[in-house]
Specification:
Number of strands: 2
Number of helices: 16
Shape: globular
Radius of gyration: 26 Å
Distance between the termini: 51 Å
Largest sheet: 2 strands, antiparallel
Order of helices and strands: HHHEEHHHHHHHHHHHHH
Strand order of the largest sheet: 1-2
Strand content: under 5%
Length: 320
């Protein structure tokens, strides 16, 4: 069989081509379309002034004794030694992790399904999505005051409809009920934000995958579990990290709705930090609690990113 001139040229090019080293393609592709590092300087400066500097100050104060009026006095490891022996801190850390777990388990599946639905082309989808996103526009304080009034056992709407739906009108007076209400109110407000993330991720899934699955006879349910969900795995990681950090820093809702009660059953770490620093004026110990909260949130986020494979993500079309 004879070889055409064009095919002969391709063969010669293949023989003379430089061998591609492993990782060259990744390095070249990783810089495609990315701006110069100088564009990041304003953001880095803003982050250093409003995040790194306050964090460094909190770490310094955690090794001091300070009442907020006089100058801080170095105290060595006294605050940290007290932290690990404090029963209130242990209980607050447990309640924070429990609240974070409940919030994640409540928000993730609902936000995922709503986000995938909102990425479709159904009629009235845009109108319904706009209505659903309204809670995201309200302040946390206004939402907490609204639910506090609705759930008041004396004159709230829960007094009338609670017995009809099998809910104790005094749900805010029970330990489990108060914690679940705090998780629900936070989820009700921020679930639209995570829905928006999933909506953007679902729209990045190549349409050709669904077309191929339809030709093979896959139904909507199989397409969701075998195409949509795997393609959104890195979006799930992004949303989960934001959700975990947000849940660990709940404060406004607890302050307005429960004030850490009943008893200390909703006294999570941010509220314990506030109570220690601004009610007992022990700001050095409050700084130690704040620093410990940063360490816990950062550790959980790094563990989630490490074990989800988010750090090895290579494709720019597999998520956000």
């Amino acid at each position: 069989m004879s070889t055409t001139p064009l095919a002969t040229q391709h063969v010669e090019d293949a023989k003379t081509a430089r061998p591609v080293k492993r990782g060259d393609g990744r390095a070249a592709g990783s810089n495609v379309g990315r701006p110069h590092v100088g564009w990041a300087l304003p953001g880095l400066l803003f982050f250093a002034v409003f995040a790194i500097a306050p964090l460094a100050l909190a770490v310094y104060l955690s090794f001091c004794t300070w009442d907020g009026l006089n100058s801080p006095t170095p105290a060595g490891l006294a605050n940290w030694t007290r932290l690990f022996k404090d029963h209130d801190f242990g209980q607050a850390a447990w309640l924070s992790l429990l609240l974070t777990t409940i919030s994640w388990a409540f928000q993730t599946p609902v936000a995922l399904l709503l986000g995938v639905w909102a990425a479709g082309r159904q009629r009235s989808r845009a109108l319904l999505s706009a209505i659903f996103f309204i809670p995201l526009l309200l302040s946390t304080t206004a939402i907490a005051m609204l639910f506090h009034a609705l759930l008041d056992p004396n004159f709230g709407v829960i007094k009338e409809i609670g017995p009809w739906i099998g809910v104790d009108p005094n749900v805010m007076g029970t330990s489990t009920g108060a914690l679940l209400v705090v998780a629900f109110v936070g989820g009700w407000q921020f679930m639209p934000f995570h829905t928006l993330i999933y909506q953007g991720g679902a729209r990045q899934v190549p349409e050709v995958l669904y077309q191929a699955a339809s030709i093979d006879g896959a139904g909507m349910l199989r397409q969701f579990f075998h195409i949509t969900l795997p393609q959104l795995r890195h979006t799930v990681t992004t949303s989960s990290v934001l959700m975990i950090v947000g849940s660990l820093t709940y404060f406004d809702t607890v302050l307005i709705m429960t004030k850490g009660g009943p008893g200390t059953d909703t006294t999570i770490l941010p509220y314990l930090m506030y109570r220690t620093g601004f009610q007992t004026y022990d700001l050095g110990y409050a700084a130690a609690i704040a620093t410990a909260l940063v360490v816990v949130a950062t550790s959980l986020s790094l563990v989630l990113v490490r074990f989800s494979g988010f750090g090895t993500m290579r494709s720019t079309r597999e998520g956000m």
